[in-house]
Amino acid sequence: MMCECSSDVDTMQAATAEANFLVTNSQDVVKTWSLNHQRLLYLLSRFAMYPSSTDEDEKWLRNLPLLVMVYEAIVHGVLDYDYSPVCTNIVKNGRSRRIWMNISQDAKAAIDDLREHDLVNALKTCSEDFQPSTAYQVTPQAVTLLKNFPVEEKKAIDAFLSAPSNKHGLMSATSGMILFDGGLLKITFDVDDGKFRFIRSDGSVTVSRVTDIEEVSYVSSPYLPNCLMRNEAAFSSNSAQAAKCSQGISGIKDELSFAIVLSQVRVLVGEWIPFGSNQIVTLNDRLGSLERCQGGLFTSELDDAPTSTSLHVAPGLTKIAIVDFEFESFTNFEADIHAPHDEGIVQIESFGMHLNGDGSIIYGMFIDAIMDQKAESIYVDHLSRLLVDVDLDSSKIINDLLSPHQRNLMDMLFMDDARSRNKFSLIIAKEITPKLPVREYLDRGEKENELKQVLGEIHSVYDLSDDDKILIGREGMLLVGPNSSQHEPLIVAHLALLSRELFIRFFFKRTFILDDNLNRARTYMKNFEENPEALDAMRKRISQCSHDLILLEEILELLRESMRALEIPNCPTDPGGMLLYEKLQLKKTLTDLEIRCKDLAKLLRGFRAKLKQVHSQNGNTSKTILERVVQSIERNVGVMADTTDSNERFLGLSFDVLLVIFLGFLAFEFIDRLTDGKLLGLDGDLELNWANKTLNDVVEIPGLWLLLELLVMAILVVGMKCLSDFLITRLTRVQRASFVVNQRVNIQALERFMQPKLIESRTSNFGSETKVIKVIWREEQSQPLLSWHRGRPKCNIGPPLHIQVCFDVFNRYLLDVSFQGQLQDDKQQLFDDLMDQLRKNSCFDQSYTAQIIDKKQSKSRTLTKDFLFRLVTRRNVSIHPTQES
């Protein structure tokens, strides 16, 4: 990656002999540091130095970019450490992605050594997806120590950091997540190709190979413990092909040092997946467990064109061979991975798999050979690289066998990264070399670091006997000894419990992400005015939270059922088994897991209540937005109404102007007709001398004739205006009166009564037990235009009288009566007159029966007249307010 300065690297390699450097710590105790410790400390000091004053910001170097630089330093000869593949979390946009990286356990142990002696500070933080993270910084004591660090060593490390490497091709920078941005270089991670990139100050970009997992050649055979088998069925063996492994090549770039060697290694990898009895029955049916030809090749890809002639699938199929099963409980089978490998790599990989209806999944294999080492001598460094294939390939195998719903559950829980999920590894070996008391393997040095490559952080070690030993780490367990097969029931039960514990651990982390999404939704609901356009996206987020919560509740219920169905084996009678049973504490572990499941159930209930609150808040937000929209519409309608009123006033003014002009022409024309001599006989023999003389006198006075014409025009305009205002006032003065009747009525008589009326509308409303009809008709005006009322004239010009009756046909009830028009002062009189007319027409007589009238007799000679009258009277008639559309 960086360019190799041969002189500097040679100097560093030559200086390796001077590996001890004496310093004094804060307790005045002399401590000897190796050259690798000093180089690592100086490398860290180039990016995370303790501030010299309070005005400066503190700089810290995150753990992930530090490990990337350590790997590059190893492959370039700057640091002399071993490395192995480790699954690591990388956070991007609040979601973590698990990738395999070459991590040096020796370097991590060296950092711990520096921390113990106060040369390095550690800052514990939390990532966006609530994963713990650590950052480092050198202390003032380290600065003092590094003053005695050789200048040649510093120059060599600076050259490694600043100069591009000849081993890596330069590439253009691509967009990615910035993990570290310092003065010397910037480290980014591209989520598309999963690569780390180094961008230096001169603009050069190099790609790190820290994510390129080094493959090894190996041969394995399927294996499962006897306690998982129902019968004496045996698995196949690939031991005859072990010789092929020595002919394969290795992808390891570094020269490894081997501190731990195992013999007759069997690997069990366990995990828990949401399963049920119906799922295991469906799986057995799919595998063809009851058929003559069981198993076959399987893939998770769906056949989207089942009627086509041919089917094309990607390489990497899984071959299944059934070994043992109970149709409703479990199935055991062999699984072979048919996947292409790099040229020269020999990998004969076969699994033994146990799928239980309670969700326990166990993958097992016996290691026949790795590289040129047979089963009697397996290096832990090689085994750590084999476990990467076991972890990834086991995920692919089970993914091909899961139902679509189970895959949806796993993708939701692991946020679309289920393929890289953690599994718990159980390694069983007949012998371990060197053979030491179990405590001596925790030497904080080479032996412990190698064991960490396959077990993770080791927290418990026990000597079961002189030959049998067990070491338990966070991610794996190692059982060594000639009697290890006798303890299979206990370790399988422990494997099932720790697989569930690992699942519960990630389940709990997933609840933090769900809670964070809900909190963000609640925060947005409170401040939605700042970004109203994001409301749809937030609703989708809430919908996704509801979907995830439903699936989490389903997973938890299946997990609790599997806890209840899990059986703990009895305590063995032999001393080693009794000690192992005591140290594993299976019942206590099961009880603790049940308590943690109860705690998860409480969390989900709280999330359910919070989700209801968010839904309610979302509804209130929608109402608020709707109210604002309505208010905006009302404001716009008000503006439109004001504009319409202005337009109406302008049109009214225009009409008045046109009316004045028209009346002016009318007045002038009227005067012309009066004075042209024909109308009054002002010419010829019938000429009126007095009129002619008067007219000539008026004309002779300047302007008087014009004033006379204008006066006539003004009289006509004022008179016409008063007349129009009077008519508009009279015709638009509408009054309404309603009376509730609620009296039984004869429907036939009522229909007969309304037949001759001038009906304007008839509407019906149907209910389950009602049929309400509203009929509106118009009464003909029988009053003169002028009449005397209380000793003074009264004008009877006004809107016509409309009468509405509302009655229920099914129940034969007259419900109410309404009057609208220019009502008299005594509205009760109108109601009484109508009721009298109804009584006269037998509308309230329940025994009345309408006469049958022949159609020919019903024709009136005034049919045409009535039709024309109705046609003329209905023209331009305003719609009655009670008329229903």
Describe the structure.
Strands 12, 14, 15, 16, 17, 18, 19, 20, 21, 23, 25, 26 and 27 form a 13-stranded mixed beta sheet that branches. Strands 28-34-33-30-29 form a five-stranded antiparallel beta sheet, with helices on one face. β29 (758-766) and β30 form a beta hairpin. By secondary structure, the protein is of the alpha+beta class. It has 20 helices and 34 strands. α2 (35-45) packs across α4 (105-116), α9 (380-401) runs parallel beside α11 (446-455) and α13 (535-565) packs antiparallel against α15. 41% of the residues lie in helices and 23% in strands. Among the domains are: 6-207, no CATH class; 504-675; 733-874, TATA-Binding Protein.
